[in-house]
Every structure is written in structure tokens, then in C-alpha cells.
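Notes to self after the call with IL:
- keep both proteins in one doc
- input above output, always
- annotate only the second one for now

Protein 1:
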Amino acid sequence: MMSLEPVKVLVVDDSAHNRRLLTQLLESSPDVKVVGTACDGNEGLRQVLALHPDVVTLDLEMPRLGGYSFLRLLKSTAPTPVIVISSYAHKADVFKALELGAFDFIAKPAKPTPDVLDKLRKELLEKVHAAKLVRPSDLSKPVRGKPRMVPLEPSFVVAIGASTGGPPAVQRLLEALSPEPSMSLLVCQHMPKQFTRAFAERLDRLGPFSVREAEEGDVLAPGHVFIAPGGRQLVVYRQTGQYVLGTPHPTMQDKHAPSVDRLFMSMAEVFGSKAVGVVLTGMGADGALGAKAIQKAGGEVWAESERTAVIYGMPQEAVATGAVSRVLPLGEIGPALVEMARKRR
């Protein structure tokens, strides 16, 4: 969805070179206008209050007022969607920034070749347009919850697919599932390969679920969450009475790696009528073909509603297939899955 008015962006980065580069990449689109730049968090806050940008791009490591303090102050004074620009060397910092309210992040390339810069430009423009659609009320929602510990029960497997806006949505969903750690979850979040392990480690500290980046040969177990590794696929197959995970390399036909479609199709093949897939916020149509496969196998597909999805692209495409049986706000998906798990048990 494109607005008739250009997206107004404020670039906050202590590097003059990075400010020039980001401005150039952003303004390569007629739908985006950089209304200002700032070299630290203090200046960034002043610019936000004066210029009222739609979106802020933020470097986390800055003098005087750093990225974390900027996010805290911005959230309390002028909630605005923030896209963090971070190097691969600071993966854990990204997820702390997401907990503090950042909308999404982009990995800063180590070697800015023309091809790499073109990929960065496309990702930057896609996420800036997506961030403009965020409702101000979404930016003030708390992310952390207090998990409740209960004994483990037999496993119930759910596959989750998400893209833009997904990391905080996945975290909120896991927190809502904490009363029922009999589940095992497979999560396909579109994310660069250098970040999926750090994402899993961040989620692992939340509560009763054990969260890790999936590896070839991992075995599904109750109370475990496996994150699809960036740059690979995540599939499940039956082997000697157990459900075992595979992480194959993508094929030429795969549009995404990891791919929600590939995960959902695998779920349909292995679990049949017991397959459950959930499509969360994200741009594009990944998950739509997989949703049809799960429905054909007799399983269930749910989608996040437009009311809470940061980007309604992926849920909308899944709904359009006719394969989705329930459309729910993010806050209702977890409790509904808990109820389903208990009924099936």
C-alpha cells in the first residue's frame, strides 16, 4: 500500500557517510522524503518534535544520547515507528531495541558492493513504507509478560509464519502461550541468517519454553520452540517414531529462505488433519500456498486480523485462499491455541 503523500523519514546516525548514504537510498523512491538528519539521540529527539516524521531510521551506537535511551524517550514523548540500522556484529543489541519498541531492523552490510546496496535499498524502502502504516497505539504496547510455570504435557505442534513486524508479534504470542508449555512450536520468521540465532536466544530468556535456532536432526519435544535458520528452510519429517527437523538449503524455486510455505507444506504432509498453521504480520504472500496445503490435508490455518497486524499482507493473502478458518487479533491467538491444545489433550 502506497500513500499519496511521501513517507517522511528522519535519519539518525553519528556517521556523516551513513547519513548521506541512507538519504540517497531512501530518496531514490519518489514516495519517500528525508525531512532531516541527526548525528545523535538528543538532536534526533529535537528533530522528531520539530519535523514530525512518519518513520525514523536509527543507529544504536551514538555519542551523548545512544539508541536505547533515544527509544525510551521517543516512546514516552512522541511515539514514532523506528527502523534500527545495525551491523551483524551487534545482533543481541537489535533484539533489545525491538523490546524497547523499535518497529523492525535492517542489517548494515559489511561490504557495500553495488548489488548489496541495491538489496539494502529495496529492503529499506519496503520497511519504511510498512512502518508508516503502524498505528501509534501499537507503539506503546508492552512486550514483556510474566510467564507462568506449569508441568509439561504431551506435545502439540504449531507452525508460525511471520515477516515484517514479526519479531515482537512472535514474542507476544509466545508469552500468551506460557500457561500451556505442552506445545512445541516451529517459527518461520523472515530474517537474515546472521540474526536468527540471536533472535532465538532472546526469546529463550522469556519463560517456560526452551527456544533455539533449529538444526538438522533436532527432535520435536513439548515445551520447545525451534526458529527456522536464516538462509535455510525448516521442515519436519517422521523418523523411528519421532518428529525430526530438517534444515535443507533453499532451491531455485524458493522465493524465501526460510519460507513459510515450505514449513506449512511439510506440516501438512507429516501431521495431516492435526496440522495447525498461524500466519502473522508480514508483507507479501508467503504462507498462502502452505495454508492451502494444510487445509487440503484437513488441518487448521489461522491468521492475524487486520486490526493488530502491522502489515496485513501475508495474513490477507492467506485469507484470500479460503483456507483460513479463524481470523483473530494477535492478543487472542495465544489463548485460543492454549484452549485447542487442552481440548486435543
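Protein 2 (the one to annotate):
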Amino acid sequence: MPLPAELNDVVDLLKVLIRQPSVVGAEHGFFRVLQRELEERGAKVTWYEGLLVAQGAKPQSMMFSAHIDRHGLICTGPNEFQYAAFVAGNRSDLLGNSVSEQLMAKIVDRFDATPVMAYEPWSGAYRGQGHIGSAHVCERRNNLIFTLEGLEHLVAGTPVAFADRLTVASDTLSGQLDNVLTAAFLVHLFSLGFEGTAFFTAQEEAGKSWRYLLEWFRRFGNTTNRLVVVDTSPYPDRQAAELQQLVLRNKDANACFDKTMTERLAAICQENGITSSFKDQFIEQQNQALAASGQEAQSLGSTEMGRIVAASNGMVTGTTLQIPTTGYHTMEETAAISACRAFLTVLCQLADIKPVRVP
């Protein structure tokens, strides 16, 4: 089955972006690629520390944000590699309330024989390829420790990305989608005439991206700064993921979101026949069942939106819009094409672009 026509260009772009490494803490090379793609689509692009800002003719009209870092490894010693997100975060923001931390022990076995590629952190220049030989959780360092085959020559500080490419099936897209998927949609919006602002943040997986965003708003924002943060949202299986096309939130583990904006997103979904659900309600329902059986509750998750709301003292408000996926933080993270169509429809309506209808 061919892709829906309105997704052809964005999927072609996604194929390019997903091949470019962007390990947490070593995103500069990816920013260079992103700058080229945005400027080709007419956006004005400005770099800041940890942040790339793309703007159209009416930058205050609508603001979106997507993080562009992806999970990978960082060389920390002779043939020793650690999970980059935890190294980049210096564990200062790892409070135990992120899904990443709770899943660390569960995902350790997912990386056996995964192909990887090393690159220069600033230029993105290729430094070689190999594959993961073994992985284990080090109790003393509370991190995933890897050994690689074929990259023993690397020195400390070298980032290593999971080698990836996009797989397009009849009804799904698969790859390391978090969060290059929704970032690609924001770039594509400028092809459709988007005149607002799109932020692309670094180090979200290390819990730092909100700081870069907040610095920008302190310098250039106005008295009311409303933001929609876009991302993927993990579900345990396809059945659970496909109960909705899009995922909304009232809150996360850090803060409550903007009620007016959240209700607007829900209304747009309803008007367009798009199924949606609230992730915080989904987790709370699961936690009730877990509590009844004496099991530990799950975190509501720690999002970029929640962190910036909590830290900005009312300067920045907003909400999230997410695409449900399965295979969280793997090379086989999967999203339904119907969800991607719905996502584009809502983005276009928010951005005052002629919407793409989802049948």
C-alpha cells in the first residue's frame, strides 16, 4: 500500500534525518543538517547553546518544540562505553521519575549485536562502525555499560550512535523514532508555509533541554508564551498504542499543563475525527491496577513541557502533542501511519495552514 500523498515529502525527509547521528550531548552535526533543511524551506535559522530556532514571518503566531537528541553511547575509557544520556546529564536531573530510568534494567538485553557508528561530536564526521558485543547494568555506577566490537580504537569522549534507517511498511513507520519523527514534521511545516517558530532542543534525554528553551524565553519571549511540545509516547504493545491516534496530557510528574491549550487540541482531534487519549489518565488507571495487586506504581513521566512549566514560574505555559509508539528506545520503535496523518492534520490546524484531512 502506497503512503498517503500528504506524507510522501515528510517521510523522504525522515529517511535523510534518521541516518544522521544525534547522540545525547553530541548533537552539533545533526544541527548542521537540520539548518540546511530548514533554510531550504525558507526558515530563518539561529543557533544558541543546545537550541536551534527556526522562524517564519510571524514568529509569535505559534510555537512548537521538538527535541532532536537520540539515545546512543559515549566512550568513557578503553573499550568502555556508557549510555550517553546518563553521562550527559551528570545524573543531576535523574530523580527517578523518568520513564528512561525505570526502563533501564528492562532494556539492557535489547542491544545485543546492534550495529553502531562512531563520529566526531562537532562536525559529525564518520569515525568507523562496529556492533555491540555485550551490555550490563553496573550497580555501582547505575548506568548501562557496553563493550563494542570493531571500535576498540576510540578515545574517551567519542559519541557512538546506533546505526539506523527508516523502515516503511504498509501501515507503520519503524526506526529509532524518538524524537526525529516529530522533528521531521516541524521541518516539513515550513514547506507548507508555516510562519511561526519551531524550536529544536538538545539533551532532552538527559533532562537538560528545558533549560536551553527557558533561556531563550527569558531573552526573547513576551509576557505570555504558549508552547506545544511534540514527541513520541511509548506504549507496551500495538493493541494499546492503536487505541488512539494521538496522545495528549493534562500533566506529567513535574507540573500541570495549560488547560486551555490542551482542551483546544482535544477539540481539534474531535472535529477531525481523530481518536485521542490522555497519557496521564492511562498511567493513573494502570497504577490503580498495580496498587491493587501490590506492585510498584509507574511514573507519570518527565517531559520537556513539564520541566519548563515548573521552572519558569508562569512565564511559559503549554501542552504536549504526541504520537503513540511501541518498541520504546530501540531501533524498532514503531508508529502507525494513520497516527502520523492525524499528527500532521492537527499541526496544520494549530499553525493556521490548510489542514490535511484524515478520513
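Annotation: Residues 91-99 have pLDDT under 50 and may be disordered. The CA atoms of residues 40 and 233 lie 30 Å apart.
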